[in-house]
Every structure is written in C-alpha cells, then in structure tokens.
Automatic annotation (TrEMBL):
NCBIfam families in UniProt: more_P_ylases (TIGR02094)
Key words of the record: Allosteric enzyme, Pyridoxal phosphate
InterPro entries: Agluc_phsphrylas, Glyco_trans_35, Glycogen/Maltodextrin_Phosph, Glycogen_phosphorylase_DUF3417
Sites bearing N6-(pyridoxal phosphate)lysine, chain numbering: 600
Residues covered by the DUF3417 domain: 11-114
Protein name as catalogued: Starch phosphorylase
GO molecular function, one term: glycogen phosphorylase activity
UniProt xrefs under Pfam families: DUF3417, Phosphorylase
An individual GO BP term: carbohydrate metabolic process
Catalytic activity: [(1->4)-alpha-D-glucosyl](n) + phosphate = [(1->4)-alpha-D-glucosyl](n-1) + alpha-D-glucose 1-phosphate
Biological source species: Rhizobium subbaraonis
Assigned protein family: Belongs to the glycogen phosphorylase family.
C-alpha cells in the first residue's frame, strides 16, 4: 500500500474485502458497510453493492477517519494471514497427497448477494465450500452464473404465486471476470454441431478458496445461446442438457486451462456428471489410451453424491437429444460408439427407448458414491439396485455422509456470543472436541435470554416484512403503526418454510384449519406461525397450496399471529432460523433425502418437530425434540396423512405449548430450555458441515486422491491392467458355472462345499462366496470360500457354516476379483448357484 495515495489504497482494500464472501459468515466487516451506506447494506447485505452505490465524498470522508482505516487494515491483514495459515486439514494430514478437489454443482447458495441457487442442493454446496475454507481443505468450486437465477416470488391479490425474473447484474454481484495474467478475459469455446460458442468465466472468492462460474451471455453468441444460462431449473430439456454440458465439460476445461489438475472431482448430484467424461477425454489426450483405460484411471478420482430419494427425481434425457449432442464427441473424442455412450446412462443397454440417466452416468464413472443421510443411503441402494443385477440390495456400493450446515453462516449474533463463551472463537475450525461439554455447562438463564433476544429480533423482522408486503399490495397508509400488534416477542413462535414440493406436504399443518386457528389464537398460551416457500412455476399442485395458505392467512383473527413471508430466500431464512422456537417439517417419508433447514435452528436454540425422515430419522431422541410418523413408509396413503396431521396438532396442544408456558418462579420454562441445551450440545456439532466436510475429506477425498495417483502413474499402468482384466473377464466369464453342492460334518463344524467350473479363468480373478439372507435385525451372512484344484478348470470350494441355520439358507456365488478394483462398482458380474 506504500507509495499510493491514501484514498486509492483504501479503496483497493475495501474492494478486496467486499469481493471476498468471507463477510457472509464473518461479521467483523459489517460496520464498514453500514457506515458507508446503511440503507443499501441493510436491504441487500451486499458489500460490493454498497461500494457501487456510495458516493466518492462519503468514501473519502470515512477513509480519512483513522479508526475506519484501522479496521480495514486489520481485516486485510487477517485475510492475508488466513490465506496461508495451517488449518485443520494441514494439521491432521500434513503429508497429504491431496492437492485439489474440484466441486461441481449446478447451484450454490452462498449469500443473497449472489442469487444462483434454488434451495437445499445449493445450500449443501455453498455451506461445504465455506467449511472447506474454514478447515483448509483444498477445494475449488465450479458452477454456472445465471443472469436471472431462480424465479422470485410475489403473491397476487387472490393469494396465488406470481413468478418474477429480475436480472442479476454482473456488476453488482460480488464476482469478477476471470482474467489471464495479461488482463484478457478468459473465455472458453465449445463446439456444438454446426457452431462454436463462447463461454465467459468468473471468479468468486470464498475465504481461502475460489469458485469459478461460467455463463453464455456473451454478446458474441447468437441470442438463443446467450439465454442458455439465464435461468436455474428453467427452460426445457435441451436447455438443461446444455447447462449441464457447460458445467461439466467447459468446467473441467477451465480447470485445465488454469493449470489446476484436480485429483478428485466431487459431483454434487448427477447434473455434474459430464465432468467425468471430459476428464476421460483429457486423460486420453495426455496418455494416448483407450476409453476403457481412461475410465479405469480417472473414475477412482471421482466422488458422486446423490441427493434424490425417488426415481422420478433423476435427471433424464431423451436418447435422440443425447445422440444429437454427443455422437461426434463419443466417436471422435472418447473413442466409443454412440451406443456405448448411451449405455453409460442406461439400465439396459439394449433398450433403445430408455432415456439417458445422469445419475447412472455418474455412478458408472465414479469410484465412490454416497447418499446424504443414513435412511437415504438405504433408499438409494434400492433405487440403484437395477444397475447391479443379481446383487442383494445391501451390497449395492452406496454409503452415506449425512449433510450438515455451516453454523457461522446461520447462527445469530446472540447465539454466536453464547457459543464463543462456551467453546471459544475457533470452535468451528477444529475437530469439535469439547463443544458438547462446553454447551452443557451453560446455565438456563443465559440460554433463555438468548432465546428471548432472538425471538424479539424475529418479531422486528416480521413487522418490517409485513410493511413491505403491504406496499407490494398497494395498501399504503397507516405508516409504521400498521405493523403494530403484529407478532408478540413473548409468544411461542413456530416456523415452516421450504420449497412447496408435494412431497414436503406443506398443507399437512393446514389439514384442520379450525383446529390450527384454535392453537394460534389461545389467549392464555398464544402461538404464532411464520410461513414461507416457493413452488416451481410448473408445479400447479404446489402453487395451489401456496394459495390455500395465503387465503388462510387472511382470516382477520390471524392477522397478528400468522404471516406468509414472500419470496423465501436466504436472508429471510437467516432471521427465521435464528428466531423460531420450533421448526416444523412434514415430508412424506422417505422422500426427504436429508433436509437441512432443521439443522440451521440447532445452534440458535430452536427445537425440531419433524417427520422421522432424512436427517431427523437419525437425529431424533425424545430429549432433543419431537417426531411424527412411525418410522415406516406408507406411500401417499391419505389415512396416514390424516393420522400424522392429528399427531402434529396433538403434540402442539398437549406437549409443546404446555411445556413452553410452564415456567418457574423466574418465568423461565426450565424443561424447555433443558431440551434446547441438549439439542444445541448434542446435535449442532454433529449436523454441522464441519463434521460433514471432515468426513468427505477423510473417507472420500484422501482415498480418492491416493487411488487416482496409483492408477494414473506411469502413463496409467494400473488402469491398463484393470482394463485388460475386464477384457479377460468378458471372454472367460461366460464359461463359469456351478456343479454339485455338498455338506460335510467335520468334528464340531459343518462344511459347505461346492464344485465350481472356471474353465480357463484363473481362480485369482474370482472370489467364491457363501451367502445367506440376513435374519431379522442382522447383517447378511457372507463367507469367502477356499478352493482346491480338482484339475481341468474344476475346483471344490469350502466354507464352514454356523450350526443354527438350515443348509438350504446358504447359496454360493461367484464374483470377479482384483485387489485394486472397486467391486461391484467397477464390475457388476455375479453368478449364483441356483
Ligand atoms: C435451508 C434452505 C433450504 C433447504 O431447506 P429444506 O427444507 O431443509 O430442504 C431451502 N431454501 C432456503 C432459502 C434455505 O435457507
């Protein structure tokens, strides 16, 4: 900064701070933006927007104040130091071979100042990037910059949703064009059948790491193509396909252009799976190998996270569309026929009508696959079982990493203060040791005070929101008084906000409107409810539910007790999750893969009342909250909906409301606050992205990096060997068969034996296993059998079996084996003795 005029260096420093989204979870710079332009700061929360709006004279005046300057300099110094500091990852894995993880996602929810998200999926991606920065995990993100993002919501006079598409002006967004060293804007070209298109690139600073965004709105492109990246989840299948091509293929090319060579590629949902193909293409260019060899080399470096709990949720494309866009790419760049390409996205490669499923492609090109909660793991193993014909569902190679949320993004000022007192400032940057005990030591009064302040803050926000919505409805007049009496800072406050997708059953709570009115308007024990949510513009059913809630909200007796907050977005979610006492969630089990909004309330001292689905199915204990549902699946049985709605009301009437209003002599609901403390202590750390990202790093990224290095070394020597191994299997496997089965009683064990005919297939290339279905509540029985050569390709395999089950329970099976292969992911063959 030396040698520059004070003002210039001050401005540069402010720019640097404003462009680092670190401000979205660290509030040390808030006072700068507030002093520069309080109104823009309060309404947008966007420091970069503040810098664009504020006058030169105001900036100059502030930069002349020494404490203002000192804050800037201290923050800048901290930022520079943080960039190179050793964090959890460097300390826990000092000699790590992992250099770069590329995280691909169609949406990222980082801040409302960069609205390129729709909901939960973007939330997971955004919170994981922030945490990777906190923990020092070397991640770069890749996504799309949408000129209109996801639609915005207004509510019409009749209560129905209206979709709006305000433009994201790149100038106002806290991003920068990505420039090469000599200042040229880095643009990529892609070849489509018949034309070349420009893709612009942008960079976003997120603490220590970068997110790269791509868009097509380059004036050099034909108008139709400029609109490809306009809307998130808008447009038809062809638009979506092109978005996914840009994300995956151009995204991978960009990383290559930047000289980054990610060993690990994390595919957040099937949308991103084309990145795996581009990675194969590049590997072929570098090493002159076949498709099969390049696939074997690269796939172990790919991690695929599936977020969908129903088959209809997968992204699928018509075969004609795939053929149109990929024939030439497959033949000329991947070295495979289009039929083989289509087979990568199909269950049955011979079914010409079967659409191309992006999740299938992702599974077939990854070395590890995970779901996002324990229950979702089980659901996913069933969903993807058809890709593993003959394999028991439990053997389908899909594990789970339960989602979390980035606590520093979602906690309130008051809860942050309390946690700091209990567990220190750096509590979310380490391995969470000591957090639980720290919180358990907090006393009831402190927590109750925090809850009251947070609820008060929510009430203020609700009133402001109420006034804004009145302006939107052109109900002008009354001034600030119009909001008088709206919400009560002492009343039990419930929140229900989420996408209005049918499976979330957003109308369950409205099933008996009069009963709900009675709960809300009880004079002695008042209850208030904040609602919010958007329904996709193509989802008529979801929109009908929004209308129903808005009509309900207009009942005069509910005016002070219920508000439908319009245009549910990240800023509103922040004050909502910070202020509510109870967060309600009513998905239809098992459709909620994880859910994250309920996790956001944990650190803030809210409590969950939720269906036993997604994360809550593994988090719920009677001491920490309330559950509805019996932990079973019932489809869309209306009698079950009826019963669960009844349970919801009964819990509120008989348990929740009485407990909140049961006070000790100091007016504190002790039982309630003990429950809050238990939920904060035992759940907040467990369902934070701190835990999630450490789990990804240790269970997925590190092993993936090691495996990729091993397979790609020496020009892909191991990959070639594996490809050859598969070819040998293709040739020799068809001759494999079983002969006679026998049981031998030997001393006190029973030996099961079977004759196996392998022909020319070397016995090292297979494993013969003995399997029995699981008995109630147990795991399946599985034993590796040992073989004895009986000559001429024949072997007798033996294993001892437990005495408590009939011999007829046991079935031998033959599966391929290679010490370095990931099975059955990489080879799904299996032969059973029938
Ligand atoms: C957290 C969040 C979501 C995800 O919520 P779930 O209902 O748990 O899926 C969606 N939208 C916004 C704005 C959020 O903050």
């Amino acid at each position: 900064m030396d040698g520059q005029p004070e003002e210039t260096s001050g401005l540069l420093a402010l720019r640097e701070l404003a462009l680092d989204l670190h401000w979205s979870w660290n509030h040390a710079s808030d006072r700068l933006w507030r002093e520069l332009d309080a109104e823009t700061w309060e309404t947008t929360g966007n420091p970069w927007g503040v810098l664009h709006t504020v006058s030169r004279s105001k900036t100059r005046a502030l930069l002349a104040q020494s404490d203002f300057r000192q804050t800037i300099e201290a923050l800048l110094k901290e930022k520079r130091e943080a960039a190179n500091e050793s964090r959890w990852f460097q300390q826990a894995h000092p000699a790590s071979p992992l250099k770069t993880v590329a995280y691909f996602s169609l949406e990222f929810m980082l801040t409302e100042a960069l609205p390129i998200y729709s909901g939960g999926l973007g939330n997971v991606a955004g919170d994981q990037l922030k945490t990777a920065s906190d923990l020092g995990v070397p991640v770069v993100g890749v996504g799309l910059l949408y000129s209109q993002g996801y639609f915005r919501q207004s509510i019409g006079r009749d209560g129905s949703q209206e979709a709006l598409y305000p433009v994201n002006e790149p100038d106002q967004l806290p991003i920068q064009p990505l420039r090469s060293a000599d200042g040229e804007w880095l643009r990529l070209q892609i070849d489509l059948p018949g034309c070349k298109l420009w893709i612009r690139t942008w960079e976003v600073q997120i603490g220590r790491l970068k997110l790269y965004l791509l868009d097509m709105n380059d004036p050099a492109n034909p108008a139709t193509y400029r609109c490809i990246t306009s809307e998130l989840y808008g447009g038809g299948p062809e638009t979506r396909l092109m978005q996914e091509m840009i994300l995956g293929m151009a995204g991978w090319q960009l990383l290559r252009t930047l000289g980054l060579e990610p060993q690990v590629c994390h595919l957040n949902e099937g949308h991103a799976a084309f990145a795996a193909l581009e990675r194969i293409r590049c590997f072929r260019v570098d090493h002159d190998v076949s498709f099969a060899e390049a696939l074997a080399a690269t796939r172990v470096g790919n991690v695929f996270t599936t977020h969908t709990a129903v088959a209809a949720g997968f992204d699928r494309f018509a075969p004609e569309l795939i053929t149109k866009y990929f024939r030439s790419y497959a033949e000329n760049h991947l070295g495979i026929a289009i039929a083989d390409f289509l087979a990568l996205g199909r269950k049955d490669r011979n079914d010409d009508l079967e659409p191309f499923n992006m999740a299938y492609l992702a599974i077939r090109s990854s070395g590890a696959v995970n779901a996002v909660s324990a229950l979702h793991g089980k659901v996913s193993r069933s969903l993807f079982q058809p890709l593993f014909p003959g394999w028991p569902t439990d053997d389908v190679p899909i594990g789970h990493v339960t989602n979390g949320i980035h606590v520093p993004t979602w906690d309130s000022v008051q809860s942050d203060a309390l946690w700091t007192e209990a567990a220190g400032k750096d509590r979310w940057r380490g391995d969470l040791t000591g957090l639980e005990t720290g919180i358990l030591k907090l006393d009831i009064q402190q927590i109750w005070r925090m809850r009251n302040e947070s609820r008060q803050n929510l009430c203020d926000r609700v009133r402001r929101q109420y006034l804004r919505q009145r302006v939107e409805d052109a109900e002008i007049g009354g001034g600030l008084d119009a909001a008088h009496g709206i919400f009560d800072p002492h009343a039990l406050t419930l929140g229900f906000a989420r996408r209005f997708a049918t499976y979330k059953r957003p109308a369950l709570l409205l099933r008996d409107p009069d009963r709900l009115v009675r709960i809300l308007t009880d004079a002695r024990h008042p209850v208030q409810l904040v609602l919010a949510g958007k329904a996709h513009p193509q989802d008529a059913e979801g929109q009908a539910l929004i209308k129903a809630w808005n009509e309900f909200a207009r009942r005069p007796e509910l005016r002070s007790r219920l508000i439908f907050v319009r245009d549910y977005n990240m800023r509103q979610a922040e004050w909502l999750v910070q202020g509510v006492d109870v967060w309600i969630n009513t998905p239809r089990r098992p459709w909620e893969a994880s859910g994250t909004s309920g996790m956001k309330i944990l650190a803030n001292g809210g409590l969950n009342l939720s269906e036993l689905d997604g994360w809550w199915a593994e988090a719920y204990e009677p001491e920490v909250g309330w559950a509805i549902g019996d932990g079973e699946e019932h489809g869309d049985d209306p009698t079950v909906d009826e019963a669960e709605a009844d349970a919801l009301y009964s819990l509120l009437e008989d348990v929740i409301v009485p407990e909140f209003y049961s006070r000790n002599q100091d007016g504190i609901p002790t039982r309630w606050i003990e429950r809050v403390r238990e939920s904060m202590a035992s759940l907040a750390p467990r369902f934070s992205t701190n835990r999630t990202v450490r789990e990804y790093a240790e269970k997925f990224y590190l092993p993936a990096a090691v495996a990729y290095e091993a397979r790609s070394a020496e020009g892909g020597k191991v990959a070639r060997e594996l490809a050859r191994w598969k070819q040998d299997l293709d040739r020799l496997w068809p001759h494999v068969r079983f002969g006679a089965v026998n049981t031998e009683e030997a001393e006190d064990t029973r030996l099961f034996s079977v004759e196996v005919y392998l022909g020319e297939l070397p016995p090292e290339m297979v494993k013969v296993e003995l399997y029995a279905e699981p008995m109630a509540g147990e795991k399946a029985f599985l034993a590796v059998m040992t073989g004895q050569d009986s000559g001429q390709g024949s072997y007798r395999y033996r294993a001892s079996i437990p005495p408590n089950r009939p011999v007829s329970d046991f079935t031998p099976r033959i599966v391929p084996y290679h010490p370095l292969a990931r099975l059955p992911l990489e080879d799904t063959r299996i032969a059973w003795q029938r």
